[in-house]
Amino acid sequence: MYSVNVRDHFMIAHSFDGAVFGPAQRLHGATYIVDLELRRPALDADGVVVDIGLASSVLREELAAFNFRNLDDEPAFAGRNTTTEFMARVIFDRVAARIAAGHLGAHASGLESLRVTLHESHVAWAAFEGPLA
Amino acid sequence: MYSVNVRDHFMIAHSFDGAVFGPAQRLHGATYIVDLELRRPALDADGVVVDIGLASSVLREELAAFNFRNLDDEPAFAGRNTTTEFMARVIFDRVAARIAAGHLGAHASGLESLRVTLHESHVAWAAFEGPLA
Amino acid sequence: MYSVNVRDHFMIAHSFDGAVFGPAQRLHGATYIVDLELRRPALDADGVVVDIGLASSVLREELAAFNFRNLDDEPAFAGRNTTTEFMARVIFDRVAARIAAGHLGAHASGLESLRVTLHESHVAWAAFEGPLA
Amino acid sequence: MYSVNVRDHFMIAHSFDGAVFGPAQRLHGATYIVDLELRRPALDADGVVVDIGLASSVLREELAAFNFRNLDDEPAFAGRNTTTEFMARVIFDRVAARIAAGHLGAHASGLESLRVTLHESHVAWAAFEGPLA
Amino acid sequence: MYSVNVRDHFMIAHSFDGAVFGPAQRLHGATYIVDLELRRPALDADGVVVDIGLASSVLREELAAFNFRNLDDEPAFAGRNTTTEFMARVIFDRVAARIAAGHLGAHASGLESLRVTLHESHVAWAAFEGPLA
Amino acid sequence: MYSVNVRDHFMIAHSFDGAVFGPAQRLHGATYIVDLELRRPALDADGVVVDIGLASSVLREELAAFNFRNLDDEPAFAGRNTTTEFMARVIFDRVAARIAAGHLGAHASGLESLRVTLHESHVAWAAFEGPLA
After folding, report:
1. F114 Cβ partners below 8 Å, 6+ apart?
2. Cα dist. C102→C7, C9, C51, C107, E34 in Å?
3. Nearest one of D105, D94, D96, D100 to D63, comparing CA atoms
């Protein structure tokens, strides 16, 4: 299996609901350094997994939807805790939708699965991985 | 599959038995930077893989059993080489036992597998991963 | 010159005032990974720059004053932009005050200067350094 | 499953053929930081996955075949784009052949699979992983 | 003293002239991960060292002059070895000229010195630092 | 000022004497990742700060004197605590002596100062820097 990974980041405010979160129930924030890993079993005719320039652009665009925002104000997340693992899944779903819509180009047709990792600090990170539809 | 990773470290002395180890047969030591990755297929009602504070505490407690010690003096390791890969398995088993004993809380009931990675330098590391019982 | 560095982190929300900040004028947040470097020209009788355990504890305590908070709500920062470079100076001053108060112990008497670096992402950081009074 | 990883690097020139590569169609170059991960289900009698000294030596020897070279001049790569993912597979195949030839020693007999990752920058990397024959 | 650092990278081919370079006399290449540190003794009215967005853009523009190129073909470098330390100075001079030309904006008027670091691998880097004219 | 940095590592056992060290009074160990930074105000005729291959070799040779050893057994350190900052100075002095003896070659004649940093974990490091005689 081949894979390619591109890295970017976004910076958000949010708060959590539930005693398990302790002081993180207060409004605070995070820098999320994001790794997007794209996988396929064989390379295409150009010898690549994906057009890495397009992959970087699509990741940047999807992160821009949240960058410099308070996630508590996002209607789509109402009633949900925007934990690192939850946001990893959100980014996964958004990138998967862009791939399904053809936005990563012809190169992306052979992609089989993705892994999205969000690093919240030098000592903690979370990920979601799964097959593409 | 979702995963969450927490990082900590411990510092030990030890020596190895066997010609394959060359100069590492002498008493020496290592800093092990430890990554504990916990995995489950779905998030719980709070939107988390695990109570990350509890996971960090349990990891710290298990590493404390070895931190600032000479592993050659540990009766449990008599006759064994405490290589990086061997110690990754030891940490795996100890954390798995803590999960089985309920020490990671109700959040941990859905955990499916773990990966423990021990970084011994900027150019070498070892890991053990497997399912939880 | 000798130096010792300890690393920790804190997570905050804030917003900036001024057109130069663009989208960062909105409420957002950051993880700050903090490096505290302590310097002195000679080691003490124990062979150390400082009691590294105490240095780590004092840094952790000072970061706890801001961790999981919205800096826009801090009276001390009213009318100020809590940029990365500004916060580096804030941490510098707070640690310097703790040293002056003797909280780093007898070992700290020979300290000459500090450098505080705040990493806001994998591609941007800021620092403040200067002599101790 | 156990794994051990060793890291090294090599520095090459090359160019790509195809409009998808944009400015990378020009002759340029890269530093590839290489991670070689070797996996096996059980440790051997010495308590190791592999003789890590031998693994490091074999990796260094295989990278030396390309280090400080222009990949456009390598007959073996004629008509191929030496992308990061392509080169990950090349290193995989070369290391796998060395294992098959017994060059990693008796310790390597239990190896089941490899993963080779090439980091081309702090924001992009590619990998190939698969079973050993 | 305050400082702000931004990071980017560029990828080039080149060769060196002189027996001291050994195999690096052959045409090869490198990824240079670049850190640009900008320093000033006091913050401006906005609480910043520099407009970090502008600093990132100017760095990117200057690196674009060399990105995906063979430095052996650059007339400006004829008869010179484009070593990592030499290129650090080249980037320093180009960014300093942009600052002198006012391209970093009013915020940059208080800048006192720069440091440019080029990382050529995980085990080697070089830098040039000095005052601004 | 120009600088070049090379990185290597060594692994040792030791113990500390003094209540300030707490559990580190027990026999334990560390991996030290070592950065050797060499500085000079101008490049030589080849465009380098130093022959980086020679610098790497000399660093490796000096670390080999301690690698895979128990520092408590070294006569030269009797009655001293081999703390990270102390060892940074030891490595500094040994490399400086090698430079004075001409072992870094003609390229090293212009070297003005060194900085030696020992990373003992992902959250702690120490350094010694100073002029060359």
Report:
1. F36, F37, F38, F39, F92, F95, F96, F129, F130, F132
2. 21, 23, 12, 9, 40
3. D94
Q: Give the C-alpha separation, F71 to F87, whole Å.
A: 10
For E68-117, what is the HEC assignment? CEEHHHCHHHCCCCCCHHHHHHHHHHHHHHHHHCCCCCHHHHHCCEEEEE
CA–CA dist B88, B82 (Å, integer): 10
Cβ density class A61-78: b for 16+ within 10 Å, e for less: ebbeebbbbbbbebeebe
End-to-end CA distance of chain C: 18
What pTM did the predictor assign?
A: 0.98
CB C128 within 8 A of CB C115: yes
Query: Are E70 and D23 within 8 A, CB to CB?
Result: no
Of D30, D121, D123, the CB nearest to E29: D30
Q: What is the ipTM of this complex?
A: 0.96
Nearest by CB: C121 against A14, A31, A69: A31
- Is residue A107 within 8 A of residue D21, CB to CB? The reply is no
- H/E stretch holding C52: helix C52-64
Residue A121: enclosing H or E segment and its boundaries? strand A113-121
CA F113 to chain centre: 13
Tell me if A48 and D80 make a contact (CB, 8 A cut-off): no
Tell me the CA distances in angstroms from A52 to A40, B3, D45, one per residue in order: 14, 25, 44
Chain C CB contacts of E49 under 8 Å are 85, 126
Q: Is F74 helix (H, G, I), strand (E, B) or coil?
A: coil
Residue B10 CB neighbour total at 10 angstroms? 24
- Rounded CA separation D113/C120 (Å): 37
Q: How many residues does the structure list for chain E?
A: 133
Local confidence pLDDT in tens for the 133 residues of chain F: 999 999 999 999 999 999 999 999 999 999 999 999 999 999 999 999 999 999 999 999 999 999 999 999 999 999 999 999 999 999 999 999 999 999 998 767 899 999 999 999 999 999 999 999 8
Q: Which residues from C are below 8 Å from E when comparing CB atoms?
A: 18, 20-22, 80-86, 88-89, 122-130
Q: At what angle do helices E52-64 and E84-100 cross, to 10 degrees?
A: 130
Distance CA B57, CA C117 (A): 27
